[in-house]
Amino acid sequence: MPRTLRPGQRSELYVVDVSTGDRRLVHSSTTLLFEAPNWTADGRLVVNGDGRLFSAASDGLTEIDLGGVPPINNDHVLSPDGTTIYVSADDGHLYAVPLEGGAPRRVSNDRGPGFHHYLHGVSPDGRTLAYIGLEQVGDRRVTNVWTIPTAGGADVQVTNDEHADDGSEYSPDGKWIYFNSERASTTPGHAQLFRIAVSTGEVEQLTFDERVNWFPHLAPDGSAIAYVSFPPGIRGHPADVDDVRLRLLSPDGEIREIATLFGGQGTMNVPSWSPDSKSFAYVAYPL
């Protein structure tokens, strides 16, 4: 079932200027829990809510026709050319849908009833999707980074281990996939940011702190990584957490605080930078 707002809660969509830290409220709702903002190539904001997808503006939300795709979750990305949106549906599969309307196309393969695809990234040439494959192995949920051609075809498993991985997203040059993982800690739930080289499989750790760091999103110009930082001790990426921080990580390793909010799940799950790399979008859920 789609998430819903708690009594007295609001969904608030903001755009923040990364040079000044100034933020602008784009849309607020006390009836719809919307999530995971990202941008079209021409600068329109897109969010999901109640299993559907919307274009968001100051005058409200306009539903995007998904052509009969099953209800979606909050994992969706837009093609670099701006013509297609790729979504993760509650049936566990990935679909391509023309952004301006039309028949959907299933991209993912059938890997069995215990396998679910959670979409997070598209390569800069638009040819490959990066997703998290979740498999139920006995009583364990195993997650790894996978890729698949946007046109359909064979999956490639990028990581193959027992570590909890999520948030896989391509670098602007397509040479790396960035993700969060628990591979550097023996404390359950303690995720940090990493990247893996597409050509060699070399893994590099990017953050090394006491907080729980999720969803690395790279600016289109490569100038910074925006990510969601949870308080120490958090497991996973739950909703309705106090002291969630949005941070920027520069190429030289400097960390800068951009915002502190009540939220978490849905705040910034998908690529959320503006096309010009000057701002990014996020959702807060104040009570």
UniProtKB/TrEMBL annotation:
Q: Which InterPro entries match?
A: 6-blade_b-propeller_TolB-like, WD40
Where does the record locate the signal sequence feature? none
Which residues, by range, are in coiled-coil regions? none
Which Pfam families does the annotation name?
PD40
From which domain of life does this come? Bacteria
* SUPFAM superfamilies from the UniProt entry: Tricorn protease N-terminal domain
The family annotation for this protein states: Belongs to the TolB family.
Q: What is this protein called?
A: WD40 repeat protein
